[in-house]
Specification:
single chain, alpha/beta, Rossmann fold, 6-stranded parallel beta sheet, 6 strands, globular
């Protein structure tokens, strides 16, 4: 319902075939995102750093394909988008790398390859394993979290700034991004990322919340 309503509200589209939804998280509550994309008829690319979560969703049939190669992900995205194939593709890697690759594609080809975007990392708990920084691999980040939580926190906040910077570039070209109620925008703001709504008070964000703007 969230994906369908986001398409209706922001893309003015009842039919989401050929539209691309990019997000992250395939763990607990976020695990349904892949299935939602296919039910809605769009192309869903969902990043997940934990391979166990990816394999679980794939085994369940909620996730159609898995890849750890960004070149392959972009090629599959282009193909599914062109031929309007409903697809759920799990990218085994950090979502920041995925967003930054989409910015690179925009900069080099002029193509905006994503229509809808969100995030379901556990940003209500970003410094205890809910969000993994792009600068490190999954196992390396887990080790740092246990040995030097202060350094881990710093890397998470740097990663959040990169995360938002990439989203902002794509949103400026027409992608519609929303907050999934996971404190992503709040933690990004605390990290110093550019998420404040221009001309509004400091508690308002430049991107809407799905609760008020989409489900409401």
């Amino acid at each position: 319902l969230t994906v369908l309503n986001a398409g209706r509200r922001y893309l003015k589209a009842e039919d989401l075939s050929g539209k691309v939804f990019v997000t992250s998280g395939l763990g607990g509550m976020s695990g349904a995102q892949a299935k939602a994309a296919v039910i809605a008829g769009c192309v869903g690319v969902i990043a997940e750093v934990d391979e166990a979560a990816l394999l679980k969703r794939h085994k369940q049939g909620w996730l159609m394909e898995i890849s750890n190669n960004l070149d392959h992900c972009i090629a599959r995205l282009r193909e599914a988008r062109k031929y309007k194939i409903a697809l759920s593709l799990g990218y085994h890697g950090n979502v920041v790398d995925l967003w930054e690759r989409l910015v690179y594609e925009l900069d080099t080809t002029g193509e905006l390859l994503v229509d809808l975007g969100s995030d379901q990392t556990s940003c209500h708990n970003p410094f205890s394993g809910g969000y993994y920084p792009v600068q490190l691999g999954f196992e390396e980040a887990k080790q740092l979290l246990s040995t030097n939580p202060g350094k881990f926190r710093t890397l998470v906040q740097e990663s959040l700034k990169r995360h938002v910077a990439a989203i902002n570039k794509l949103a400026d070209k027409g992608m519609f991004f929303w907050d999934y109620g996971n404190a992503f925008l709040l933690e990004a703001q605390r990290a110093g990322a550019d998420v404040e709504k221009k001309g509004a008070n400091k508690t308002e964000f430049r991107y809407p919340s799905y609760v008020q703007h989409i489900m409401g």
